[in-house]
């Protein structure tokens, strides 16, 4: 039983990495974990050379990584949320999986789970990632999201910046309620004089958010790992 974890988060030991690794461990299977930022997987160039061969002609680490995807009983793919979307590392990997779809749908039936971590828009990433893997015929047995550390906590001017992520995702600017203030209430106090894109005013109560401090989030990762284990067993 082999389960492969692929992280599209470029941050070392990130929350995305932690959740993927927790899922892998809970499967009790033989596992491998790769960070796309540590290897080279470039975007699809739409040459369509893979149409008849199901092999991508681009010469980079996707060559061996795709073999591992094909050999695995299940894969766990995770991404950070960048500009309301998956990271470019994740996007490039998903695009390259296109080579396995043509005619034969080689990834059809593969068991998969997804992880998305962000400040406000991680659900959008989770939805996209699930749909992308489903398009490859994969069966998504679990999908989870978690809140991570806003870069604004660590960049320096975060407390007084007009353009912080919570201001960028504010109701005033987007017309939507991403609930950032509520989701980060133990971490961040947005002060009454804060005005998105005009005047930044906040106070950091904690400057790092780790999923390891959130038992319900870690329990969800373990639950997904166990689901993968059961699903693989029921197939064999
Ligand atoms: C370039 C960049 C863009 C970002 N854009 C968004 C965004 O649009 N929405 C969001 O929710 N978080 C955004 N973030 C915040 C990250 O999603 C957040 O830091 C998250 O914790 C990353 O997960 P990771 O640490 O597991 O990689 C952005 C971060 C970076 C570096």
Summarize the structure.
The protein is α/β, with parallel strands linked by helices and 236 residues long. The protein has helices at residues 15-27, 62-71, 88-96, 122-135, 165-168, 171-174, 180-183, 215-235, and strands spanning 2-7, 30-35, 74-82, 85-86, 111-118, 139-147, 188-190, 202-204. It has 2 domains: 2-148 and 209-235, Flavodoxin domain (Rossmann fold, 3-Layer(aba) Sandwich), CATH 3.40.50.360; 149-208, no CATH class.
| The CATH H-level homologous superfamily of the largest domain | Flavodoxin domain
Shape: globular
Bound molecules: flavin mononucleotide
Which topology of the largest domain does CATH recognise?
Rossmann fold
Helix/strand order:
EHEHEEHEHEHHHEEH
Beta-strand percentage range: 15-25%
Distance between the termini: 10 Å
Indicate the CATH architecture of the largest domain: 3-Layer(aba) Sandwich
Percent of residues in helices: 25-40%
Mean pLDDT: 97
Major sheet: 6 strands, mixed
- How many DSSP helices? 8
Total individual domains: 2
Output the CATH class name of the largest domain.
Alpha Beta
Low-confidence residue ranges: none
Structural Rg: 19 Å
**Count of DSSP E strands?**
8
The assigned structural class equals alpha/beta
Show the helix and strand layout:
Layout: E1 2-7, H1 15-27, E2 30-35, H2 62-71, E3 74-82, E4 85-86, H3 88-96, E5 111-118, H4 122-135, E6 139-147, H5 165-168, H6 171-174, H7 180-183, E7 188-190, E8 202-204, H8 215-235
Parallel strand pairs: 1-2, 1-3, 3-5, 5-6
Antiparallel strand pairs: 3-4, 7-8
């Amino acid at each position: 039983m082999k389960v492969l974890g692929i992280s599209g988060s470029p941050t070392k030991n990130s929350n995305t990495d932690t959740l993927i690794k927790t899922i892998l461990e809970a499967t009790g299977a033989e596992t491998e974990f790769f960070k796309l930022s540590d290897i080279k997987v470039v975007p699809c160039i739409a040459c369509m050379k893979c149409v008849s061969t199901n092999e991508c002609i681009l010469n980079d680490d996707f060559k061996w990584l795709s073999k591992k995807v094909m050999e695995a009983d299940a894969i766990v793919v995770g991404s950070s949320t960048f500009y309301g979307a998956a990271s470019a590392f994740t996007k490039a990997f998903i695009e390259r999986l296109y080579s396995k779809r043509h005619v034969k749908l080689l990834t059809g039936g593969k068991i998969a789970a997804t992880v998305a971590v962000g400040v406000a828009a991680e659900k959008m990433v989770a939805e996209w990632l699930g749909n992308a893997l489903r398009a490859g015929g994969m069966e998504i047995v679990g999908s989870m999201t978690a809140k991570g550390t806003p870069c604004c906590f660590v960049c320096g001017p975060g407390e007084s910046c007009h353009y912080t992520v919570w201001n960028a995702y504010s109701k005033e600017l987007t017309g939507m309620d991403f609930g950032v203030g509520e989701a980060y209430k133990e971490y961040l106090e947005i002060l009454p004089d804060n005005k998105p894109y005009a005047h930044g005013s906040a106070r950091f109560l904690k400057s790092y958010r780790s999923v390891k401090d959130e038992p319900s989030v870690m329990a969800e990762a373990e639950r997904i790992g166990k689901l993968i284990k059961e699903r693989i067993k029921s197939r064999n």
